[in-house]
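Quick question: what would this complex look like in 3D?
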Amino acid sequence: MQEHPGGSERETGRSLPKSPVVLILFFLFFMVSTSQPGQAIPAFARKYGLPCSACHIGWPILNNFGLSFRDNGYQLGNDRDSPIYQNPAYFPITFRVTPQWHLESQTHVLVDQTNTEQTITTHGFDLSGLDIWTAGTLYKNISFQVLPSMAEGDAFHFESAWVRFDNLLNSPWLNLKFGKFEMDNLLSEKRFLTLSSVGGSWYNYHFLPPGDSNGFGGIGDNQLGVELAGHNSNSYSRYSIALLSSVDGNPGLTSAGQGNTARTYDVFANLNQGFQVKSLGVQRVGVYGYFGQSPTYFLTQTVNGTTTNLQARGNKSFSRVGAYGWWFFKDLDIETFYMHGQDNAFLGNGKAANDPGSLPAGAAGPSWNGGFVEAHYAYSPQLIFTGRYELVHMSRQADPTFPQNLGNVDSFTIGYRWYPIMFSRAGLAFHNEYAQAKMGNTSLLTNSDQINRSVMVGFDFDY
Amino acid sequence: MQLRAILMDRAVSTQASTPRHRCLSTGSCARNLCMVVLVLAGWCYARTRETAAPSFTIDLDKPVGQVLKAVEDVARSGTIQGTFEYTGDQHLEGAHFDENSRLFPTWPGNGKVFFKVRNKTLAPKHFINSNDVGTVAVRYIVQDNSNNSTRLVIDAVFVENARHHGHPSDGYVETCEFAEIGKRLNQFDQREVLRASGREFSPTQESSSQAENALEPTDSSAAADIWRAISGQKSQLAADTAKLKQLEAQAHKIQAAEFVRIRAERVELRASPYSHARIVESLKQGQEVTVLAKSAYWCRVRAEDGQEGWAQYSALEVQP
């Protein structure tokens, strides 16, 4: 029945708060009481007049329709894509920045002054970098994305810049993307919910064993190349295959940080399938593989004492393969990920391929296994809790004299994001996170495990 | 990306030398902060989930047949009121009538049940925490209360296709759907009055006067028969006239309804009978309004400017 009158009346006329704690609570109360539902990168919400929740479980994680919308080249596929529905003043741009307070701590850090290891802790107010995200359609079935990004005090770089020709031959199975782009990872590191120094990346997506000279930064790094991708009408079935320059996304044909030297190509392939489980909804599983090469030495030229690299040589192979799943249980979703990685022995030991004698006795290509389980609980679209456990364990060291656990990572992260304001024009997330990672045997003096910790309290906002 | 920046920040920060004694204050600071964060998390937890509106239930002083007809008419209209996908739209089009819907459990009670269903709907408005693409369904239950009274129950829900997650309405959809049904009922009433007037009053009156003028007695027995017939016709006319007056009174009651005035100093007229519903107009003390419908605690009223909305009983008083 209808609500009983007077049931939601509140007291009014409170006195002005005075202490800082009360002021903070008053501020937060104001934010809570004025909060609005919905999530999104606002650019598309503005364009279509849709609520943010049309595409996001919780910003920035995409829901099923958001994934389908992205796969379809940022098009709804109905008459609303027509320019007649769009505001002439609309401009597809979104800014994102995260002012924050954070605390960083690391154990067993070698200190010069005492020549001992101690725990180093720092904390303070800080800024993230700035992302300027623009994306949309240039024309029907031609989409684009340009994302200039900068860290505090740094110059801008292009995190991504690509154009995509969608629905070639009128088929959603043929889409061609060209430029610098995120790998087609269904579990997207660019869209996850943790931002702290320790928990702000998936270690599996960037892992390299200690001493490894591989220039590849991991499948979490955006890469330069061309991608052929496709999907069915609801994006339950998806595939992608990409041909990429072996430059880890660095422009200027740069190999392993050496300019104008790249000349090889990598391949990344991804295949995933969604299927309905009665009452629980769609579940997704997939497999992926990255197969690449990285140089071990360079042809050089020395003029007036200055040495310039001319060409990368001694390219050696590496691979990252694995499988993943994304499981939904009503408001709870769980991401599971497995990776097996291996590098060539020359890469693993940081030695030039034209000098095999420099390899240590018993040298082998390092290999490792890793994975994570990450859960998100969407209490409401305005409040999402997250937790993750992740590990990377070496199965074979490049040098047999290395300790077996050298480089191992054991990490967990917990946090939540609360969205007091999330309109199609702007969004604000109150972000709280604690993360911890144990790095196996990495201390310089005692070869102890090092533990890194992060506490982060910040406001992640876009407009 | 910011991730890189943060990692770089961390690399710098962990290399920085910090006096040991500051770690104590840092730890204390972190503990306090964590406590504040936990309290805030609890606060957010308690505040951010909206609650579903209860079923829209109303008892109408109408025969069940008339209500059934109006509800079915609305259920077949193809438009769901009170919700939309794109900002600027007013309603959802492309809905279809159905006698069953898997989005609602089977109705165990008595009465007739109808559904209006809209597939492939994108995060429709006025469904709590609406997300993703899914199906909207409106359920109407019409129950005969006897004594010329009918109970109407309306519910609306949105269910995601991918996660099968159900999102109940915040009450606005049901209210707007009822407003549509109300319009139909008013139309039926007006037609009924007109139809009744045309069939039972004018033709009868005309024929009886013609009969009186035409009658010319020729003999006593025949004259007696004729006068008896005239008397019968007059009785019939009187009965018809009385019925007409009854119908006119009923029409007047339906059309004019009940007039009341605002008792409270200021009353917010709301779009639906819930205190959190959107305010459509503010009324001042003494303003007269027409009562259109009544529920347990709320009245649907029409203000002098024609604006319709819901007000609580406690804010109204009957005119002296």
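Answer marked as accepted. Residues 258-318 of chain B form a domain with the SH3 type barrels. fold (CATH 2.30.30.40).
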